[in-house]
Amino acid sequence: MSRRILHFLKSSSPHILNFILVLALGVSALSQRQGFSGSFNHPAIRYLDTPLHDAATELNQRLQDGRVQLTFEPGSGYLPSVLKALNIDVDSQVLVYSETSADAPRISRRNPRSIFFNDTTAVGWVRGGDVEMAAHDPRQGVVFYVLKQVKAGKPRLERSQQCLRCHISWDTFGVPGMTMLSTGPPDPSGYATGGAIDDRTPFAERWGGWYVTGKPGAMRHMGNVPVELPMARRPSRPPILDSLDGQFDRAGYLSPHSDIVALMVFEHQTRVMNLITYLGWEARVGHDVRAVARDLADALLFTDEAPISGKIEGSSGFAARFAALGPRDHLGRSLREFDLEHRLMRYPCSYMIYTPAFDALPAAAKDEVYARLWETLSGPEGRAVVEILKETKRDLPSYFLTSPNPQLLKSVSVILEPVFFRLDVDRDVVALRDGGFLLPLLVGGGLRLLGGADGEA
Q1: Model confidence, pTM
Q2: Does residue 25 carry a pLDDT above 90?
């Protein structure tokens, strides 16, 4: 987008912006037929005036009744207290220096913007600016807030519509959401290059305009170099930073890291978060949700994840604390465990399946997601995921709890030789030949034999 257009949008009144937004979304929906094309004022949505249940709303309530107090600190203001109140790890910090937010005039390599996050909420801050928050409401999608960095008796987060100028796009599927941008040098016409990234993006195209600390394995990325530096003049591999010490004056910044593992987690969950909102809204207005449910299921399963080459190593304690959050099954397995040598997570199903927003999906939409998950979970890795979900995820469909893994059924063999009995422990198959055959089904942890041909059950 050109600087002139950006200046026009930033200086326009909210009414003009709303008109432009509705017009753009409507035209795009007609031509591309992707993303939410309904009205934000639909009775089943009412994005701007429905009561909210997100982390910011809950924090405001705790501030109002005195259960929480925020401390204003020199340099960083309310930021440390906000993170503590929301239980957001300081080492989740990722730092962006491309001018890509409402605070663009303040942002530079010498004064980057910090983003801290957990599964539902992201908090942004740039030195000299206010505290910004994007909180995922279970029904309404991402809602945006600003906390003024002015010392007050009872500070309060105020809802902001200004953020919607950039946070509703086809990268967010036409719903209010989060995006992570990788920015490259301007093209010959002066237009910015780059775009939204997630876990499907090749590493060579990630993190333009971001600081990256930690080791990227055998891969190269676009981070740690000036955005305006032409591609032809960039090093074959970006600088590898263990910390941000010496990169800029860190006064006010809470962590010396912009951890590569935190960057990978954040870019994964932004897309999943947006798909959850998109699916929920489509279902509530009565649209066909099968395609969106499939996309969400595939995102949860990391279906199109870009492969990793070499071992990725974070620079902070983020990975260890993230993995420790669980939940875990009786074998100690968790969907939060990292792999970081071949892919992001050890088990190919996202921890985002535990979020309140996923739980709040309309039943029919969630059924479609679960059906796709069950269809796809095959092989030893899929079997482990099913076992973990059985013990850690509530409201699973009954077939997750009582039916065998799809791979198990594929592995069952019928024995045609004369009278023969075999118990194959490795393959969980019992086969019996005595005038017919018996095939096993695991039901509620037990074994039930079904007869075939002349066999008796």
Answers
A1: 0.82
A2: no
